[in-house]
Design goal:
alpha/beta, Dihydroorotate dehydrogenase (quinone), TIM Barrel, cell membrane, single chain, 39% helix, 12 helices, 341 residues
């Protein structure tokens, strides 16, 4: 029903406006008695064979929602009824910020892709914390970044603030230094500043009674030399793992009208390059750390290929927008079909 009826209607309108409309509609519908049970009956697939234990956490299934969809932790309970095994909120920053000027999201229908240049628009970490205090039983990741006005030399302070604020309310952390939509942010992926940032967070983490897994989200546009640096940094800092990958600045092979818009590209054009980054990290590190695979998962086969390349878990964003919630169940079913009882 989503692809045949809802999507053609929704795709007639501005992507960001549709996003807010869909949030409000799901919030309203969730208040109707029995609605959450209907969602779960149609979309949730539960099976012990889908369970995964990764970086010390037990996931109901390996299919999660990537950061950027529920930036402010507004809808994680409702979204969990669609069958996700975990949900990543954010990217959140210490202070609220409006992000880049609108219009800042573009559908590339011919390419099954999206370009966005939101720029970490969010209500600030304290607003997210207020909502996360009502957490359900879904595993939550906290994706943290720096405010646009914060210079890179002071970035550690921003990450530190969000880390401390979220610590009691999320199950794992993601350090986002790979968005192309905050000026100079990707420079923090360079070896020296990245090592310094991760070492700082791990030192604070190690002083907690129960440390939380910290992951690093990287860009798909890194060279092999840079990826080798990432491997060295992840191992030496002893963080829990990597999320591969964020959106790309590449525009290779696009045919849609909005192909030259500035921002990060997600969706089908990212499928292959993201999978290759996963395979490179897994192979060159000899599987030294877990990887969450994200980028261009539009079909169950795309997810299986990322798992085969070395990912322990996968996340959806653009595939969820284009294919609807049935994609979550279809991926989990494909995983089960590989391992019949």
């Amino acid at each position: 029903m989503y692809k045949q009826i809802l999507r053609p209607i929704l795709f007639q309108f501005d992507p960001e406006a549709v996003h807010h409309f869909s949030f409000n509609a799901l919030k309203f519908a969730y208040r109707i008695p029995g609605f959450s049970s209907i969602l779960k009956k149609n979309f949730v697939l539960e099976d012990k064979r889908l369970e995964r234990e990764v970086f010390g956490l037990k996931f109901k299934n390996p299919v999660g929602l990537a950061a950027g969809f529920d930036k402010n932790a507004e809808l994680y309970k409702e979204l969990s009824s669609l069958g996700f095994g975990f949900i990543e909120i954010g990217t959140v920053t210490p202070k609220a910020q409006s992000g880049n000027p609108k219009k800042r999201a573009f559908r590339l229908k011919q390419d099954s892709a999206i370009i966005n240049r939101f720029g970490f628009n969010n209500e600030g970490v304290e607003e997210a914390v207020k909502r996360l205090k009502q957490n359900s039983d879904i595993l939550i990741g906290g994706n943290i970044g720096k405010n646009k006005a914060t210079p890179n030399e002071d970035a550690i302070t921003d990450y530190d603030i969000s880390f401390e604020a979220l610590f009691d309310y999320v199950d794992y952390f993601v350090v986002n230094v790979s968005s192309p939509n905050t000026p100079n942010l990707r420079a923090l992926q360079d070896k020296e500043p990245l090592q310094k940032l991760l070492n700082h967070l791990q030192a604070k983490n190690g002083k907690k009674p129960k440390p939380k897994p910290i992951l690093l989200k990287i860009a798909p546009d890194l060279s092999e030399e840079q990826l080798m640096d990432i491997i060295d940094i992840v191992i030496s800092s002893k963080i829990a793992g990597v999320i591969a990958t964020n959106t790309t600045i590449s525009r290779e092979g696009l045919s849609s009208i909005h192909k030259d818009e500035a921002g990060g590209l997600s969706g089908k054009p990212l499928t292959k390059s993201s999978t290759e980054v996963i395979r490179f990290l897994s192979t060159k590190s000899s599987k030294a750390f877990p990887i969450i695979g994200v980028g261009g998962i539009m079909t169950p086969q795309d997810a299986l290929e990322k798992l085969d390349a070395g990912a322990s878990l996968v996340q959806l964003y653009t595939g969820f927008v284009y294919e609807g919630p049935s994609l979550i169940k279809a991926i989990n079913q494909a995983i089960l079909d590989r391992n019949p009882k």
